[in-house]
Amino acid sequence: MIFKGVGDSRPYPDHGLTTPKDWADVPPRQVRLDELVTTKRVLDLDALLSEDSTFYGDLFAHVVEYGGVLYLEDGLHRALRAALQQRPVLHARVLVIDG
Predict the structure, then answer these.
(1) What segment(s) does the record annotate as region Disordered (predicted)?
(2) β-strand 89-97 against 61-66: which pairing, if any?
């Protein structure tokens, strides 16, 4: 299994970070793919295959840690690309929300 779980929503409260600039103050770190729960069930295949998928966005995936669980909020295409390249970790900005 690639991920710990596959979800289709964000089970944590709204954190107010919406743009890459908002997330810029959250330091990146490595997270294991098998510790992530996705918040999306569907991937836009164009995002996965695009060479410039991070050109206008953040270089790092966005993860929210809530209740001890790591939720992949943005960057599903990056995570799947890492899995396809047989890399077990992903560099992500991890926002911790107390819960």
Answers:
(1) 1-23
(2) parallel
Rg of the chain over Cα atoms, rounded to whole angstroms, equals 13
Length of the chain: 99
Averaged pLDDT of the chain = 89
**Structure tokens belonging to residue 97:** 């929300």
CATH number of 5-9+27-68+75-97: 3.90.1530.10
In the chain, where does DSSP find H-type helix?
20-23, 45-49, 76-84
Query: Among residues 36, 89, 24, which one has the least CA distance to residue 65?
Result: 36
Q: Among 85, 83, 65, 82, which residue's Cα sits nearest to residue 73?
A: 65
Are 90 and 33 in contact by the 8 Å Cβ rule? The answer is: yes
pTM for the whole structure: 0.87
Is residue 68's pLDDT more than 60? Answer: yes
